[in-house]
Specification:
Layout (H helix, E strand, L loop, with lengths): L8 H36 L4 H19 L3 H15 L3 H36 L7 H12 L2 H16 L4 H24 L4 H30 L7 H35 L1 H37 L3 H33 L7 H33 L3 H20 L1 H4 L2 H26 L10
């Protein structure tokens, strides 16, 4: 990382307040998102095993479809934050509207693909004859809510860029409560079964999107920003999102390869892998909250032509990432005996999971650095580098992971490969941050 004068205590405290003010609500909103699927699973689970299995398959497909477009939030956050830093709120909101229009176009395209191909997609996931009809029903209905989900991503990026992570938290909580109430009413009260769960989720998602649009439209009118679609602006948003899409797809490929390798190790190992992966994902939410703060703060500093401020806050956030990783790692070690019994009572699964949990505990400081620097470079709009770095990481991880069954390393060795993957990411991100090439100031990169 490029050297900068040591920040006085007062400056560090200011940075700390900014990070906490953005990261804590962001963490709440991040955690609220997976609660939608958990609530649906709890409600649908009482209908029967086939219905729950169908929901699981459809939810996996929907999550994949939406997560691919997470760049709508990331790229929008960086672009809007830069313009906020430059003092041009009108251009900032105009940029956000371009992201929202792009979300609507992508959502319509996904619906056009998913509705006719739903049976084939469900079959691709190996659904049983009893679960497949429920999966198709849930997928087709829930697909109607994809435009709303993507609008929520883009609008969340707008508000994060405007340094507001509290509104997304409130909307996420409201959406979760609404989703739960509607699911109970439609599944049991209206006796719609799994279709009721899907409709309840769609309605909640459109409600969330509507709230976001009200907030953004009010901001646009206040600052005189146009609400009309702008072809050039939408095209620019799409171009900025392509590298982040490549990055996301490469990361998804890594996770899919890890799961495929775990499946080759045996039933106990793949079951233990799911437990470890669930905890790893939960820890990622905590660290990603700091990364989101990084996206918003770094973009604002660079937009304000404050390169020294960007370096200083980057260094401070890395310190936060390391400290958070150490704390989370210790919590994993201490909570191991309590965590695993929540998922299984099978001794073989426990024996496979326990040493793997030690590995991810030791890896958390590395993860903390990775998430923070990832957020910093996203905030700087350094998407092309992030894409190439993730492709390189995938190239290193794949052969190492595929060799795990050959050498009989088991699940612990697989998570050792996952830790190697994070170490490679850390190296690539650290080299970039140290070079200073990510520091491009101004309202646009």
């Amino acid at each position: 990382m490029t050297q900068a004068p040591a920040a006085p205590k007062a400056v560090r405290r200011r940075h700390d307040r900014e990070i906490i003010a953005l990261a804590v609500p962001a963490f709440g909103a991040l955690v609220a998102e997976p609660l939608f699927v958990m609530a649906d699973s709890a409600i649908v689970g009482h209908l029967g095993t086939a219905q729950l299995a169908g929901l699981g398959i459809a939810a996996a497909l929907l999550t994949t479809a939406v997560s691919v477009f997470v760049f709508l939030a990331y790229a929008t956050t960086a672009a809007v934050a830069r313009r906020v830093g430059a003092g041009d709120l009108q251009a900032a909101i105009r940029q956000g509207m371009d992201g929202i229009w792009l979300a609507l176009l992508l959502g319509a395209a996904v619906i056009a693909v998913v509705l006719p191909t739903a049976p084939a997609l469900v079959d691709l996931f190996g659904a049983s004859d009893t679960a497949a009809p429920y999966a198709i029903t849930y997928l087709r209905i829930s697909a109607l809510g994809i435009p709303a989900m993507l609008v929520v991503l883009a609008a969340t990026g707008v508000l994060r860029g405007l340094q507001d992570t509290k509104t997304p938290l409130y909307v996420a909580i409201g959406g979760f409560v609404t989703n739960g109430v509607l699911n109970v009413g439609l599944v049991y009260g209206a006796d719609l079964g799994i279709a009721g769960s899907a409709w309840g989720t769609v309605i909640a998602q459109f409600g969330m999107a509507a709230v976001y649009l009200v907030v953004v439209v009010r901001g646009a009118r206040r600052h005189g920003a146009s609400l009309r679609p702008d072809a050039a602006g939408i095209r620019a948003c799409a171009q900025a999102g392509v590298p982040l899409l490549v990055r996301t797809l490469s990361l998804r490929a890594i996770l899919m390869i890890a799961t495929a390798v775990a499946a080759r190790l045996g039933d106990a190992d793949v079951a233990a892998h799911q437990i470890v992966l669930s905890l790893w994902s939960l820890l990622a939410f905590a660290l990603d909250a700091i990364a989101i703060a990084g996206q918003a703060i770094i973009g604002r500093y660079l937009g304000a032509d404050d390169a020294d401020g960007a370096r200083a806050v980057c260094r401070r956030m890395v310190q936060w990432g390391i400290a958070s990783g150490v704390v989370l790692g210790l919590l994993v070690v201490l909570a191991r005996p309590l965590f695993i019994p929540l998922f299984t009572g099978d001794a073989a699964v426990e024996d496979a999971a326990l040493p793997a949990l030690i590995v991810i505990a030791l890896a958390q400081p590395i993860c903390g650095i990775v998430f923070v620097l990832d957020g910093v470079l996203m905030g700087a709009g350094d998407g092309p580098y992030l894409a190439w770095a993730m492709i390189a990481t995938l190239a290193v991880f794949t052969p190492v992971a595929l060799l795990v069954p050959t050498f009989g390393g088991g699940l612990t060795a697989l998570w050792g490969a996952m830790t190697l993957m994070m170490a490679v990411r850390m190296l690539t991100l650290w080299l970039r941050s140290r070079s200073g090439r990510w520091i491009v100031t101004g309202a646009t990169r």
